[in-house]
Design a protein that fits this description.
GO terms for molecular function: ATP binding; pantoate-beta-alanine ligase activity. It comes from Arthrobotrys conoides. It catalyses: (R)-pantoate + beta-alanine + ATP = (R)-pantothenate + AMP + diphosphate + H(+). Its EC number is 6.3.2.1. This protein is α/β, with parallel strands linked by helices. Helices cover 32% and strands 17% of the residues. It folds into 2 domains: 2-234, Rossmann fold; 247-350, Pantoate--beta-alanine Ligase, Chain: A,domain 2 (2-Layer Sandwich), CATH 3.30.1300.10. It has helices at 2-10, 51-58, 78-88, 118-131, 148-151, 178-181, 185-200, 212-224, 254-260, 262-275, 281-294, and strands at 46-48, 67-72, 93-98, 139-144, 204-208, 230-234, 299-307, 324-332, 342-350. The protein starts with a helix and ends with a strand. The model is unreliable at 1-7, 9-18 and 21-42 (pLDDT under 50). Bound molecules: adenosine-5'-triphosphate, pantoate and beta-alanine. The site of beta-alanine (BAL) has 3 residues, from loops.
Length: 351
């Protein structure tokens, strides 16, 4: 274990400390393209289920290789693929992790019904590999699909008081916004990401802006735990009508899919108001509430909020050039017997 970790830490020639605040205005990073040709060996995509076999592969890579890791919970869609594509554009190897992490679900959430489509996921990653032009340096070389026992050897009951072992919390960021409704959530995310980073040894990790608070928390985690890993935040992929792609969208059929777009419309209405000169948060947020209210009783707003991007503190006035996060969560309520409530999140950056 120790020697593995040491070789992981030693793979870099120079150490560059992470900066917590470096992306305050330009929030989304555009990947820089590096030249191809450093792979120089087979990049056939392999699936690993065990930490030991993954590590054996990871440590077999030449020291010149770079690894971009894309953590996911599976049920891959074009949003996930855009993360993997970004990783391929600036690393010699892309590793996609697929792990439905129990620790981020409460006992009343949808862990049991969460879509599981591993075979299709692997096909989509193979398709991505086949579609990448020759001058892109990386391909998806490995897919890490661990078992729950592999990730949580001591078990992982969903009831927090019953959990034993080591957990990671990013305080107080994890209690804000999503943390208000899902108090267990970011402890589960921070814990599993810490484990995944230790296992996969990435040079860079790729997260979607769709889960914007998650990106703020991961940035803080990388900084506080002194991980030698760069964070990339990739723009949100949307359906034609603007709905943010999400694995949970499969729950939305017919009329529920139609009304789901209200969350995006509410955010766009705020953005338009801001662009027309309104900067008071109270007025902007009320606009979003009004749009959701007017959509009827099938949807219910959980929160809408304007926050600065480092500590997620509420802003009262949106100042130009500061990159303020406008985020919202909304429930789409059941219409028919057997349907569950679907919770959607979305955000825009007002800059
Ligand atoms: N539409 C999207 N555009 C870009 N990235 C996305 C999009 N949706 C998800 N991601 C990113 O993919 C990564 C894995 O997310 P995850 O597997 O939870 O998918 P998801 O679609 O967000 O699922 P869920 O429906 O559970 O929220 C995260 O970094 C997430 O932000
Ligand atoms: C980062 C993550 C894969 C951790 O389980 C999850 O929260 C997600 O898919 O966004
Ligand atoms: N992308 C967020 C994962 C979750 O809601 O559990």
């Amino acid at each position: 274990m120790l020697s593995t970790l040491r070789s992981c830490a030693l793979r870099r020639v120079s150490y560059k400390p992470a900066s917590l605040h470096k992306q305050s205005t330009s929030y989304i990073t555009r990947p820089t393209i590096i030249s191809p040709g450093t792979r120089g060996y087979s990049t056939k995509m392999q699936t690993y289920h065990a930490v030991s076999t993954y590590r054996a592969w990871r440590h077999s890579l030449p020291p010149t290789s770079t690894v971009g890791v894309v953590p996911t919970m599976g049920a891959l869609h074009a949003g996930h693929i855009s993360l993997a594509r970004a990783a391929a554009s600036e690393n010699t190897h892309v590793v996609v992790t697929i792990f439905l992490n129990p620790a981020q679900f409460s006992p009343t959430e949808d862990l049991a019904s969460y879509p599981k489509t591993l075979e299709k996921d692997l096909e989509k990653l193979e398709e991505l590999n086949a579609s990448l032009p020759d001058d892109v340096p990386g391909r998806v070389s490995a897919v890490f699909v661990p078992t729950v026992a592999e990730m949580y050897p001591a078990g992982i009951p969903l009831v927090r008081d019953q959990q034993v072992g080591t957990f990671v919390e990013v305080i107080p960021l994890s209690a804000k916004l999503e943390g208000g409704t899902r108090p267990h959530f970011f402890r589960g995310v921070a814990t599993v990401c810490t484990k995944l980073f230790n296992i996969t040894c990435p040079n860079r990790v790729y997260f979607g802006q769709k889960d914007v608070q998650q990106t703020v928390i991961i940035r803080r985690l990388l900084f506080d735990l002194v991980f030698d890993i760069e964070l990339r935040v990739i723009p949100t992929e949307r359906e034609k009508d603007g709905l943010a792609m999400s694995s949970r969208n499969v729950y939305l059929k017919g009329r529920r899919r139609e009304v789901a777009i209200v969350i995006y419309k509410a955010l766009k209405a705020v953005e338009e108001m801001y662009e027309n000169g309104e900067s008071r948060a109270s007025v902007l947020l009320e606009k979003a509430r009004e749009v959701v209210r007017n959509a009827g009783s099938e949807v219910k707003l959980d929160y809408v909020s304007l926050n600065e991007p480092q500590l997620l503190e509420d802003v009262e006035v949106v100042e130009k050039g500061k990159g303020v996060i406008l985020s919202a969560a909304m429930w789409v309520l059941p219409r028919e017997e057997g349907e569950g409530t679907v919770r959607l999140i979305d955000n825009l950056v007002l800059s």
